[in-house]
């Protein structure tokens, strides 16, 4: 294998958790070049992985919303770039129409995708001349590694390797906002795309007051006006908490690197915190922690389940756990797959 294309278009958390397939491929095929196709909104995150040779991107999300001519031309240019190389294999670990179209347009002898029953959109099957086996009985993130290994003929070994290097400030960029104080920083990622994934504001307030008592500075990121209002409401319950200004993905990544602790709901930035080796607690209220959570012994853990909203004490116990303080009672499940 000399050149392989990975297709994982969106979203932030999924792309972050798919990145370890690059290290897996290069362990199995030393010297192989790995390209990646992603939506423009998340392309920079893929570029932070030093093992990826080319990042192919187009404004697919933006074009879907606005249908602008400039975005259409950018998509056309990206197709030309996609076809500039011939691939030994294309691995579509997304499994919807847009990823399948990318896979089909690529110049490749083999194009691998999920079985029809495992596709996000069954019509995507038109693009593939090779299929992964049945989805393995594990979390979604390890499953992507296993499927890629099946397609290319190698066994997955060891914990996932993300290889993320967040770029430092460039001279032209704005100065990063500081959070007042010198105590350890805890980031609360309270916002998510769906209301049912949110954790109650009152519990964020109670958690923030307890962590403040333990000596943390609390900071709250946000990405929309509604999320800003929620951040302000939580901050009003936590003396000394800081509502951050609206930050770009790279600025938030740098802020995560500053943090001693990240607590958040099922959202992409919490996956990014885990990949950046931060102490991370992920709270689930509507989706499966076993399928979509983060797990690394005494560093990252997930709790909650659909319809079962974790209490503040459970989150505090999880925070103790990721600080390497195992509890006397039955230990928290950390999953069958350890993460780096």
Describe this structure in words.
The protein is an alpha/beta fold. The chain folds into two domains: 3-152, Rossmann fold (3-Layer(aba) Sandwich); 185-322, Glycogen Phosphorylase B (Rossmann fold, 3-Layer(aba) Sandwich), CATH 3.40.50. Helices cover 36% and strands 17% of the residues. The protein is built from 13 helices and 14 strands. The protein has helices at residues 12-18, 20-28, 43-47, 60-66, 69-82, 97-105, 140-152, 201-213, 225-236, 249-258, 268-275, 289-292, 312-322; strands spanning 3-7, 33-39, 52-58, 86-87, 89-92, 107-108, 111-113, 130-131, 185-189, 217-220, 242-243, 261-265, 280-284, 300-304. It has a six-stranded parallel sheet with strand order 3-2-1-5-7-8, with helices on both faces. A six-stranded parallel sheet has the order 11-10-9-12-13-14, sandwiched between helices. It has a two-stranded parallel ribbon with strand order 4-6. Helix 1 (12-18) packs parallel to helix 11. The longest helix is centred in the N-terminal third of the chain and has 14 residues, at 69-82. The protein is globular and about 60 Å long. The model is unreliable at 327-340 (pLDDT under 50).
